[in-house]
Design goal:
Largest sheet: 2 strands, antiparallel
Shape: elongated
Length: about 90
Amino acid sequence: MKNRNIMGVTELKEELHNYIDHADERFLKMVYAMSREYKASMLIGYNVDGTSITPKELAQRVTSASKRVKSGKFITQEDVEKEVENW
């Protein structure tokens, strides 16, 4: 006998959509607040353009930066300081 409390992602989404479709304002505000808190907890920070950075994106950036450094594609602190002097 299958446990009715265990649902897959598809079933959860369908049931949540049904709740939202028939919800009152109080329920919608609670779900909205909870969703915003969850999303905020999944952010690491923001790019200069205001778009968010997720943990997955940060991990990809770190991997990419590490590969660049290992391949010798980087600028030294001294080079940056020399460049800044010419600004």
